[in-house]
Amino acid sequence: MTLLLWPTPAVASGGQDPFVTPLSIEQMRNKQVVIETTEGPVVIDLLADAAPNHVGLIMGHVADGGFDGTSFHGMVPRGIIQGGDPFSKDPERRDEYGQGGLGLVAAESNDERHTAGTVSAVGVPGDPNSDGTQFLITVVAQPGLDGHHTIWGRVVQGLPVVTRISETAVDADGKAIERVEILAAAIRDWAPPPPPPFTTETVDELAAYRAVLDTDAGPITIELFADLAPAHARNFLRLANAGVYDGMAFHRVAPGFVVQTGFIPSRDAPLTEEQRALVGTLTPEFSDTPHVKGIVSMARGDDEASASTSFFIVVGEATELDGVYTAFGRVTAGMEAVDQIAASPTEGETPTTRIPLHRVRLERD
Fold first, then answer.
1. What's the CATH code of the domain at 98?
2. In the chain, how many H helices and how many E strands?
3. Of 107, 171, 175, 313, which one has the fewest beta carbons inside 10 Å?
4. Is 252 inside any structural domain?
């Protein structure tokens, strides 16, 4: 198998001249790589001005189908993923993963930093002329890598996909046990990211969705009041779709009053950068909806416009909340699960044991 994917490229580590892209900066500017993986799509902005030879190499490798069928072979959970090794196309060469596609291009020093979603080259430690097609993507900021790897791209869509890939089980050597493949990669002109989900839907389209809270007590199904609180319905659907609520807990239990969840510090893992970008505050949408048993409403602070992610389910009659908190839905199935949560032991209003909210999944009529 040849690793020389360009016309007459030189292998830098062999004492020859390192690869220099035949493309001009203008030809490489405003380009993106779209990577279709078995976990979902990832879109990367190419940084032609920061690392022109690396970007030229990557663009040519994509054009030749060099990434297609390769596998992400190394992971640090919620930290880093590594891929791009042509050897990883062959499952029988697993012992060699991490050794292929090197020695093609010299390091290119730049001022970029390893923030979340950074894509940088992998080479042989101590050899600045050993970069190639292998790359790593950071799930979170990795300042310890700054100055040691040439940064040539940034993930602009699909960081949750990168996070999921990073959670792939690895063996004692840090190599993935299961294959997570790049199905295809393509170069395209830069395109703005699409609007966040649930931005353009009509009220009727929003109302077609229902949310199901998966808890140890059983599923809780919620219909949304898209006509009464459209901004709150959009926000809730957007956060649920992005997995913001997954792994949270019911952090407040007030018997005869409410059970409450959606508090970000109760989450069992930090939010990703893309998830954090979706978190904001909401202008109230008060209505004459009475806060009776089963109503779902947004929690907030003293500021009426401070509602964000936390919400509560009413378990009694709470008329003092009417017109003061935004009711945006009601429980249509699983109230027995809500009652079981409401009966949990507490110290004050804090559960004595964790009451997990495993996931909020969306269903559509």
1. 2.40.100.10
2. 7, 19
3. 171
4. yes
- DSSP E strands: which ranges in the chain? 31-37, 40-46, 74-76, 80-83, 118-121, 135-138, 151-157, 182-189, 209-215, 218-224, 248-249, 252-254, 258-261, 295-298, 311-314, 327-333, 346-347, 350-351, 356-364
What region does 103 belong to: left with phi over 0, alpha with psi -120 to 50, or beta?
A: left
Task: Tell me the CA end-to-end span of the chain in Å, nearest whole number.
Answer: 51
Contacts of 145 by beta carbon, 8 Å cutoff, 6+ apart:
114, 120, 136, 138
Q: What is the C-alpha to C-alpha distance for residues 150 and 9, in angstroms, rounded to an integer?
A: 19
Domain boundary among the residues 189, 222, 254 is at 189
Instruction: Give pLDDT, residue 16.
Output: 55
Closest CA to 355 of 222, 342, 313: 342
Strand pairing partners for 53?
Answer: none
Single-letter amino acid, residue 177? I
Q: Are residues 353 and 232 in the same domain?
A: yes
Domain span holding position 78: 12-189
Let me know if residue 237 belongs to a domain.
Answer: yes
Average pLDDT, the chain: 93
Nearest of 202, 200, 224 to residue 213 by alpha carbon: 224
Q: Taking 70 as the threshold, does the pLDDT of residue 11 lie above it? A: no
53 and 168 belong to one structural domain: yes
Token output for 216: 């140890």
- Residue 52, judged by CB atoms within 10 A of its CB (0-12, 13-18, 19+), counts as buried
